Amino acid sequence: MVNCGLLSEKNEPVPLKSVSVTLLVQDHVVSVSSSLQYVNEDLKHSLEAVFVFPLPAEASVFHCSARIGKNEIQAEIKDRHSAHDEYDDALASGHQAFLMEESEQSPDIFRMNLGSVPPGESATVSFSYLMELSLQADGALRFCLPGTLNPRYAPAGSDAVPEVCSASEIPYTLSLSVDVRSSARVSRLESSCTLDPLVFLNPEHTHAQVSLSAGHKFDRDVELLLYYEDPHQPCAIFEAGDATAEQGSLMADPMLMLSVYPEFPADMMLSKATGEFIFLVDRSGSMDCRMHRGSDASNRIQSARDTLLLLLKSLPMGCFFNIIGFGSDFQSFFPQSVLYDEATMEEALKRVQEMKADMGGTEILIPLKHIYSQRCLPEHPRQLFIFTDGEVCNTKDILDLVKSQSLSHRCFSFGIGEGASSALITGMAQATSGHAQFITGSDRMQPKMLGPETPALFQGQRAIIYAKLNGSAQAAESSTETGAVTINYKLMNKQVTNRIQFNLKPTEDTGLTVHRLAARTMIRSLELKERLSDFESLQKQIVKLSIQAGVSSVHTAFIAVNTSTRAPLKAPMVKMNIPAAYADCLALAPMPALASRFNGETKTEPQSDPFLQLVSLQKAAGFWIISSSFANVLAKTLDELTNHKPAQADSSLWATVLALVWLNGFEIDALIEWKFVALKAVNWIRSQNLESLPQCVSNANSLLGCQVPEEALGI
Asked: What InterPro entries has UniProt attached to this entry (predicted)?
């Protein structure tokens, strides 16, 4: 176990003082440069600092350097064993050195050893990484700088070692600046933290800058959401190769990155949607922790319950579904998936509200194997929704299992609370062409209904394609020639063709971004094959490609040694572990001291949010009925609802129109959450007698004090 806290008996100050981060966004990818400043405040001993910190799972680290006092050293990437030997030899010889490597258990955890910092001396470690920005349901591109590394649960009998962070207050500050350069117009940039105003640097609004407001304490995740005006517009980045690279290698030839984000009509996707929907819900003890450290924070299991309500109400009639809770063991609501109707929906909702975080550890591998052992239903493609705080150590075992079943289902994963493992959450979704979301504050999940087909591209999913091209990009630098990519796919059994053109003049100032991301994609694929086959030749391929591209892998590490320092150590070095973040609850293997946490009672609070109350009252077929509970949600009396009903209108039609007008009038900002709930209602209304519809809309607006036009309801 790595206890990321200060180990000194005298409780000396932690030597990490500040973190500085710069982001350069180019269309759908980002280059991140970070600097961490240390000070060895021990005036008698040299210091070896150990810093365990989270990075996004899809990050590709490509640069490391360190400045110790006045000396700056650049890191090289080498195979892991050689790097460790060189680091140990350097410290034994009195040299300054640092070692940075990826965790063998999970690719979203990095470990840095900074060795032989003289007494009273400062040290600054800098590293850079690249990544594709994840796409959200509302079209936003998401970047998250993790401020929390949650404890990781190690299954009984496993060799995984939990890496646990300190529960002390973070003593260092964060400065962050963002530079956005895109082919599309930037609409806005939002954040979970306070930002300075967004500044546009050209009239086209394709170049913008923003910074985190001064004085920010790095005590929580920093989440950024970038919106382009036309997120569905395909974009291409054409990048020249590295002239110094070995001929014929991945880095030498030109590379194309194509981003495609198709948009299909939502009502068409819903009307044709069938399938088997399985919801796998984390009920381990850690799900009883708070979502964040604010005084108004709910616990994680409540967030999961709210999200399940929205999803269950969004399911189409005629599909099949099941809900499975897991912890140290697992429990299914039904022995197998059942037909979705009013009775099964109500039974499931009742049991959802009774769910507690009382099932021990986080053994997700066992219920996954159970799900995959059950046969898929003909004509009902399987879609798996996983809710977890992601506190596991066997991440790679889980991802290997999910990947092995990628042809039989799609996985939609939701990270609950700050510190959820991005490697686990995004990895499960990416392995199956699904979608990943993180619920870190008071937000609920943004539900997405998905079509029955299983092609390469799906509604709400972006595809990024890398292509290595033959020839010399330099020859095309002054030309206006273009290339083209043709994409063929079927939409509701109709053949569709898209042709996307791109300029053969290489994009400037990319810094080999596309090549390195392509190399990282290949490395991840080879690592998966290696874990499944254990061929030694695959490890050699990974190391070779990692060193050629200069990007991290599980078999390589960054090592830097300052050989100009030869002063022998006058006293043994003190090893100090630096806290990665704050964590206010543990989720390790159950121990007697933690029994009360894992077996404690979790109160089920009644729904107090009018929006959730209204959604909970919708029937499985999509309509509402007049009742006292329905009237209370609308803040009206039963008599008021009855007196305003048009004489010729059916009672259920009147109630359903009232609900739609209320949603459009008072919850329009939450449209992404109730869109498919409303579409079910609209489809039901279309099957009714619509003669009284205009009068129902008019009376509903009058009663509720709204001005929602009939066409806004989409009927």
From this structure: VIT (IPR013694), VWF_A (IPR002035), vWFA_dom_sf (IPR036465)
